[in-house]
Amino acid sequence: MRYVSFRRPDGTPSFGRIEGETIVELATDGAPSLKAALTDGSLSGLANGASYAAADVVLLPVIPDPAKILCVGLNYAEHVKETGREQKAHPAIFVRYADSLIADGQPMVKPAVTERFDYEGELALVIGKPAHKVAAADAWDYVAGYAAFNDGSARDWQRHNIQFTPGKTFPGTGGFGPALVTPDEIDDLAALRVQTRLNGELVQDQPVSDMIWDIPTVIEYVTAFTPLSPGDVIATGTPGGVGDKRTPPLYMKAGDKVEVTIGTIGTLSNRIIDEQ
């Protein structure tokens, strides 16, 4: 299944299931949001509501209101190499906040305080049930589905000190969508390629299998230090090819179009605008 959060034509937030060019609303049978339906376990049993043409609604981030967004840094060897950093024995984890998220088709906002606004195409996963101290062998049971993510980064703010977070969570900088794609829709997740295009130019392209720490390892590590709830998000890291490490550097600016494609999971597409 492919689920989306969206605003109805009247502006009311809702969620539903994608069927071709139609969205079948599901927020009519108790659960007010996709996160709520994951939380109470009702998602697969919700009755169909109204149908809308996809063109008539405005998408929201897949989960508009996650309680936690955890991001894995330096999870592809090519990216570690281009940064010149030492490979560590454990994943690098930083956080984002929900107000940094934007949906497919909505503008990513270049912060006014930086000229070094960089793309980072990533695979994101959404947690489907409470997860605490999960063993890697059991981790797949806790994944509700996947979506594309763009971890838009203000590189100068990221490097003000040794912590990444200041450069990683400006409002409107985290693209997330278009849909939550359930695991049964994906034949071979590891074979899917994380591809980023800036104005049509392919700038990142690596398979999920190139991750240093795979998804079960990341879930085991994260849930060892913090419990996760349904709707929480883990962005699993970006491949090599980031703009900050190119010669000359390649940063996003107003008017640019950035797209993150992950095989059958789909394409997240956003235009860049300046912060007003």
Automatic annotation (TrEMBL):
Domain Fumarylacetoacetase-like C-terminal stretches: 68-272
Keyword Transit peptide: no
The keyword Chaperone belongs to this UniProt entry's keyword annotation: no
Taxonomy, superkingdom: Bacteria
Gene3D superfamilies cross-referenced by the UniProt entry: Fumarylacetoacetase-like, C-terminal domain
GO MF term list: isomerase activity; metal ion binding
GO biological process: carboxylic acid metabolic process
All copies of domain Rv2993c-like N-terminal, residue ranges: 1-30
Pfam families attached to this UniProt entry: FAA_hydrolase, Rv2993c-like_N
SUPFAM superfamilies: FAH
Alphabetical UniProt keywords: Metal-binding
Family to which this protein belongs: Belongs to the FAH family.
Name this protein carries in UniProt: Fumarylacetoacetase-like C-terminal domain-containing protein
Native organism: Sphingobium yanoikuyae ATCC 51230
